[in-house]
Amino acid sequence: GAGVSQSPSNKVTEKGKDVELRCDPISGHTALYWYRQSLGQGLEFLIYFQGNSAPDKSGLPSDRFSAERTGGSVSTLTIQRTQQEDSAVYLCASSPLGVVLQETQYFGPGTRLLVL
Amino acid sequence: AQKITQTQPGMFVQEKEAVTLDCTYDTSDQSYGLFWYKQPSSGEMIFLIYQGSYDEQNATEGRYSLNFQKARKSANLVISASQLGDSAMYFCAMREGSTGANSKLTFGKGITLSVRP
Hints:
The complex is a heterodimer.
Chain A: E1 5-7, E2 10-13, E3 19-24, E4 31-38, E5 42-50, E6 53-56, E7 65-69, E8 75-79, E9 88-95, E10 106-107, E11 111-115
Parallel strand pairs in A: 2-11
Antiparallel strand pairs in A: 1-3, 3-8, 4-5, 4-9, 5-6, 7-8, 9-10, 9-11
Chain B: E1 4-5, E2 10-14, E3 19-21, E4 24-25, E5 32-39, E6 46-52, E7 60-61, E8 64-69, E9 74-79, E10 88-96, E11 106-107, E12 111-116
Parallel strand pairs in B: 2-12
Antiparallel strand pairs in B: 1-4, 3-9, 5-6, 5-10, 7-8, 8-9, 10-11, 10-12
């Protein structure tokens, strides 16, 4: 079956502009995660969705970052007033339930964001 | 304090030999899970192997095995019979607890493995 998909694959924007990144999880997966991968920081957790609600938003770095999930499926990560330090690869992952310790998270190919 | 520590910046191994990639972790939870992922240059994260804190045996998946030493809080990945396609970045990650609120993975900074022909 289809894996996790993300769009766009690459995004170049100017400092101060807003961007939206999209994630399509594996069909039927209840849990959805956003991570950020940058050169200096490795992989950082941003936010976790269980269905349409987000029980853990602890990784969002500032109030410029927000995310939503609708219909228990597609999720959008929005970055407002982008800064150069937002440049990174944004990875989305999904898993069937989210509450099982040994559950594997399946990752999408990522969106590479460059803020000029 | 870092929850996942991967201190080897880069590793080299000869094709067909075995290699160990180190990972130490820090948690006060009794229930936790440890994961290894591979990230080739193409960028996708590929799940390799899982070890639960209560698992009595070391996990194995094909050429991958996990040397789990709970008292030392280490979970080293062993790759046997290295292949050229094993050249990639390898990440150790941990999920703490068994409830949905702790569902996120915490990753180490990764280790680059290069397999020489």
